[in-house]
Design brief:
By secondary structure, the chain is an alpha/beta fold. It is built from 7 helices and 4 strands; from the N terminus they run E-H-E-H-H-E-E-H-H-H-H. The protein has one domain (3-184). It has helices at 12-22, 42-51, 57-65, 95-116, 133-137, 140-163, 177-184, and strands at 3-6, 34-39, 72-75, 80-84.
Length: 185
């Protein structure tokens, strides 16, 4: 099975672009048997929270109102990746937003790969990043996913921007300073 993309609100153009970006990854990341569920609006997540929650309440609070933006998460046991599109700006006009989105998708795909390969299963869970962001970024699974994200975005960033219709000369990807400090210290 591969990676299924669902709930892109019939945005076939965005779906095609995301699929092309995922196709840039090595084969071992394309056959994870995970579903990527996109949340275009906050209301969809709020409805899930009220009707059929599958996250802890603190997860919903962090995603919807946290100081540190949670743009995606992976639920290994369910084979699901959740991407919160409502945290991203205009993907048609802002190349930086495209880079943030695809970098986040790659990051979450790495978490799915970790789960499939039985890595970091005994790691302590931190659901509220706001309480201690450095501890969150320093978790071995997060360090690994951020390093993967950085490597893939440095390798494929220019091509990703072209897939989305941007021609950006001299593109270079960098994680934000707080994350770099935490994962490389």
């Amino acid at each position: 099975m591969g990676l299924s993309l669902i709930n892109l609100n019939s945005n076939k153009s965005l779906e095609r672009k995301i699929r092309k970006c995922i196709a840039l990854l090595d084969d071992e990341y394309k056959d994870l048997n995970f579903t990527i569920n996109f949340y275009g609006k906050r209301e969809k997540l709020q409805k899930e929270r009220n009707i059929k929650p599958d996250l802890k309440e603190e997860n919903y609070l962090q995603i919807l109102a946290g100081k540190y933006m949670t743009t995606g998460l992976t639920i290994g046991e369910k084979g699901e990746i959740k991407i919160f599109l409502f945290h991203f700006g205009n993907l048609k006009k802002k190349p930086r937003e495209v880079i943030l989105l695809i970098g986040n998708i790659f990051h979450e795909i790495r978490h799915a790969w970790q789960f499939k390969n039985g890595l970091f299963q005994d790691e302590n869970e931190i659901t509220v990043i706001d309480e201690n962001p450095k501890a969150y970024y320093r978790k071995p699974s997060e360090k690994d996913a951020y390093i993967f994200q950085e490597q893939q975005m440095k390798k494929h960033g220019g091509e990703i921007l072209e897939i989305f219709g941007f021609l950006v000369e001299g593109y270079e990807f960098e994680l934000n300073d707080e994350i770099k400090e935490a994962i490389y210290s």
